[in-house]
Amino acid sequence: MNPSILRPGCKAEERIFQWIGVNSAPPRTLNHILLQTLDSLANRASLKDTVGYGSGLRKFHIFCDIFSVPEAERLPASFRLLHSFALWAAADPEHIPAEVKEGIQLEPISVTSVRKYLSAIRAWHIVQRWPPPLSQDSLVTINFSLRGLEKIQMGRRVLPPRPPITIRMLIALRLTLRIEKPFDTCIWAMSLSAFWGMMRFGEVSVKSIKAFDGKLNLKRSDIHFGYDLDKRPYARLDLPSAKTAKPGKTQSVFLTEQNDICPLAALRNLFIVVPARSSDPLFSWTDDKGNILPMVKQTVIKFINNTLTSWGWGTSFGHSFRIGGASYFLAQKVDPEIIRIAGRWKSLVYETYIRAFEQTASRHMSNLTERASLVGGAPIDRRGSALMGKRRVHLRTMLS
């Protein structure tokens, strides 16, 4: 990307706010500093995660540089420009004649990523006080083109699914950690909480030490231990802020006992090894000077990846804990609806995360003729008991 004073060097998440255009945007508030300040504050508060937006803006300006698009035409951007950007970004070099693409830099990405980048450009326009650049009819045209390019790509630009964390990986991690040490015991507690609670790793960690905010991140006061109706212990984590929660609304994560890799035991051990105030981070550790510090996401992911690599596994990602927990519960035949509720999914989107079926297909589908046969329309198991009869007995037992 060509250097420009319009696009100063900054973190990816700041590009949408700091990268500007040469044109003056029309005012959208009255000419008063208070209203203009409120407008700026509202813009930032409306966008939770702008790192991906930064990547989209960079890609857009690379395209504009390649095709010598003047700065005045980049913001606001026309339908013609954005349609061209979408075609270029999703272009598959294998299907383009050499003479056509000669001298043109191509950086193909998946159609899914292109749509995300178009959303980034749209948000950039709004933040910079311009109207959204594409009408509904324009979007229909672009999506029509993208559907065709997606068929041409045939999945070649789609990243492979993230690998799930497994029970064996957790055991290997435990054998590596020394949970009497503050740093290690914090990693163990957050790993088990993320796995068994099917949590996003950003919910148990922070982006940086200075980024901890008690209004957004878990504190010691946000955990509650109790007993359910069967008098079994559980822990409830009340998330002050969550991706799918409305502003100011909490979401609760429930953790239960799990034998040798128990999140409740890990959390209790964390409280012993790292005593802290109620306002301190829930997942925290102490440095050599005794300072209580939140656990930074990238630090933990790097540690876990290095550990799993040393045990012969590839690298994983923070979301692999959420995927792994859902996959494990499915493998143990937990009702999918329970998985959806416990994982706080609002729809069946969790199905795209689950990687367990290939590992457990035989439990559900193999040797069915050995286990049951149809006699008079009623399924009978090998011991001769009608399955429907067994279900009635089971229901009576539950009701008694």
Task: Give the helix/strand layout.
Elements: H1 15-18, H2 33-46, H3 51-66, H4 79-89, H5 98-101, H6 111-127, H7 136-153, H8 167-176, H9 182-196, E1 223-227, E2 233-239, E3 251-256, H10 263-273, E4 284-286, E5 292-294, H11 297-310, H12 319-331, H13 336-342, H14 357-365, H15 368-371, E6 372-375, E7 378-381, H16 387-399
Antiparallel strand pairs: 1-2, 2-3, 4-5, 6-7
Helix pairs in contact: 3-6, 4-7, 9-10, 9-12
In short:
The protein is mostly helical and 400 residues long. It has helices spanning 15-18, 33-46, 51-66, 79-89, 98-101, 111-127, 136-153, 167-176, 182-196, 263-273, 297-310, 319-331, 336-342, 357-365, 368-371, 387-399; strands at 223-227, 233-239, 251-256, 284-286, 292-294, 372-375, 378-381.
Mean residue pLDDT: 85
Number of strands: 7
What is the domain total for the residues?
3
What integer value in Å does the Rg equal?
26 Å
Helix content class: 40-55%
What's the CATH class of the largest domain, please?
Answer: Mainly Alpha
| CA(first)-CA(last) distance | 71 Å
Question: What general form does the structure show?
Answer: globular
Q: What pattern of helices and strands is seen along the backbone?
A: HHHHHHHHHEEEHEEHHHHHEEH
Please tally the helical runs, counting DSSP H or I stretches of 4 or more residues. 16
**Tell me about the biggest sheet?**
3 strands, antiparallel
**Strand percentage:** 5-15%
What is the CATH fold-level name of the largest domain?
hpI Integrase, Chain A
Which structural class matches the secondary elements?
mainly alpha
Q: What is the name of the CATH architecture of the largest domain?
A: Orthogonal Bundle
As residue ranges, the low-confidence spans are: 372-400
Strand order of the largest sheet: 1-2-3
CATH superfamily of the largest domain: Intergrase catalytic core
